[in-house]
Amino acid sequence: MFSLRIKRAPLVIILVLVLIASSVSVGWASIPVKDVDYPEASEQPLVDGLFTTSGEYSAASSVTDPLGVGMFYFEHTHNWAPPGKSVNYPGTTTIFQDHDIWAYDGLDDFDLNTFVVYRKETKIVTFVFLPGDEPDDTWWLTEAGLNNSPLLDANGNINDDGGFLIRVNDDPRTDRLWRLGYPEPGDPGWNFADYYGVFAKGAFTNSAYTTGRRLSPSAPNENYEFSITFDNDKGIFWPPWDPGWGIGPPWDPNPFPILPDCWSWNSIWIWI
User: Fold this and answer.
1) Other C-beta atoms lying within 10 Å of the C-beta of residue 199
2) For residues 3 and 202, what is the distance between their CA atoms, to the nearest angstrom?
3) Which of 127, 139, 168, 266 is the most core-located residue (most Cβ within 10 A)?
4) Which tens digits make up the pLDDT trace of 67-107?
5) pLDDT value at position 36?
6) Mean pLDDT within 165-182
7) How many CA atoms lie within 13 A of 211 on its CB side?
8) Cβ–Cβ < 8 Å for 151, 175
9) What percent of the chain has pLDDT over 70?
10) CA 36 to chain centre
11) Which residues make beta-bridge pairs with 125?
């Protein structure tokens, strides 16, 4: 079982990104629920930023986010077989989360959502971008602590037109950027180790409404879908380690369990 916690922030200006900017001095706070369960998915999810079918997330647990502007959905599967794809993943366990922010019904070039996963001593931060490339990224990269990323161009910008960026243990040398058009889970060229087992996508969509996950409102809104896949024997998927770091990847003494509802890692945090 997990404890779910959310980094709370005053709703100074609408938009996920500004919440990040306005919450620098705000500490972590617990969401007002007990533990969040990740039930077995009723059908294999496709992580595309949408509620792809009426069955996707139909067995998920859900909770309103603490700002009251959207809903979180949680589920897991074993041996993930992304629908419509050619490659399956036996010997793995994947958890899925969707954040349907129905109150955010405007699309801006800098919209994003952040998911932070803690497993023992390892912290994996994922920034999930909506479509649209902000012309000047320097302001939000600074607020998000990413202005030291080696992935920035000569002007200090990054392509945030969809896709996601990952950082591990607050170390910029671990940064990985996935962009639209790159291989996805289920594609022959996809490798979980390239992104620490993470895959995520955002979309501006009303698919939560059209698939029956919510009754209203009917308008499109920001939606973010996140997944992290673990090797049942080895735990986190680690990319090839750069010898220049001077260390190897942390040994994971408690690999992800095979039992469907017996989670070995401590908690998952989401920053909205």
Assistant:
1) 24
2) 24
3) 127
4) 788 999 999 999 999 999 999 999 999 999 999 999 988 88
5) 65
6) 91
7) 16
8) yes
9) 75
10) 16
11) 116, 167
Q: In what order do the strands lie in the sheet with 28-30?
A: 28-30, 3-7, 267-271, 112-119, 122-129, 164-168, 171-178
What span, in angstroms and rounded, lies between the C-alpha atoms of 80 and 60?
16
Q: Is the pLDDT of residue 15 over 60?
A: no
Q: Most confidently modeled of 38-42, 43-47, 245-249?
A: 43-47
Contacts of the segment 58-62: beta carbons below 8 A, 24+ positions apart = 60/96, 60/98, 61/36, 61/37
Q: Is the pTM of this model over 0.85?
A: no
- Six token digits for residue 230: 């673990």
Find the farthest-apart pair of alpha carbons in the chain and give their distance in angstroms, rounded: 53
Residue 246 and residue 201: Cα distance in Å, rounded?
33
